[in-house]
Specification:
With 159 residues, the protein is an alpha+beta fold. The protein has 2 domains: 2-70, Urease metallochaperone UreE, N-terminal domain (HSP40/DNAj peptide-binding domain); 72-156, 2-Layer Sandwich (Alpha-Beta Plaits), CATH 3.30.70. The protein is built from 3 helices and 11 strands, in the order ββαβββββαββαββ. The chain has a 6-stranded mixed β-sheet with strand order 2-6-5-1-4-3. It has a 5-stranded antiparallel β-sheet with strand order 8-9-7-10-11. It comes from Aureimonas endophytica. One of its GO terms (cellular component) is cytoplasm. Residues 1-66 form the UreE urease accessory N-terminal domain.
Length: 159
């Protein structure tokens, strides 16, 4: 079986032979049999567990690179009344150890009805969205990803 032991960070220049579309939990791996979107079967066999980010490249031992695509997931977009309120909401989510993707004007989290009720009780605006989820790595993560004010289009969920 083809093996993949290295990852090219999304900032590196590479030409992808194929893509693999995964949600956030599927992208948090060390060792797993995988199949690219075009049918390339390979064994991901990294030295340590890491979160594969949107745009990273998985280098196969035959030299080809498979580009990682983040799959849209059902999330909440959380907005505050102002920057200080959003910061307070982020603190409450962090206090509950929730994975979160932080933007300048909103936070993305996985849908969880109990959290929705808590956030609404804190006067947050909570919107159901479908979007790729690329949460912060945490203080002890080896591959920290900074989001800053980058914008990603959000698509309202249709139930």
């Amino acid at each position: 079986m083809i093996r993949a032991e290295t990852v090219c960070d999304k900032g590196e220049a590479f030409e992808a032979a194929d893509t693999i579309t995964l949600d956030e939990q599927q992208r948090h791996r060390r060792r797993m049999a995988m199949v690219s979107d075009g049918g390339i079967a390979f064994l991901l066999d990294l030295a340590e567990t890491r979160l594969l980010r949107e745009g990273d490249g998985i280098r196969l031992d035959d030299g080809r690179i498979v580009k990682v695509v983040a799959k849209s997931e059902p999330l909440y977009a959380v907005r505050g009344q102002n920057a200080a309120h959003l910061l307070s909401l982020a603190w409450h989510l962090g206090n509950r150890h929730q994975a979160a993707q932080i933007f300048g004007d909103h936070i993305l989290i996985r849908r969880e009805p109990v959290l929705r009720e808590m956030l609404l009780g804190l006067h947050a605006v909570v919107e159901d969205v479908d979007a790729p989820f690329d949460p912060e790595g945490g203080a002890y993560a080896h591959h920290h990803h900074q989001h800053g004010d980058e914008a990603r289009p959000l698509t309202a969920a249709h139930d």
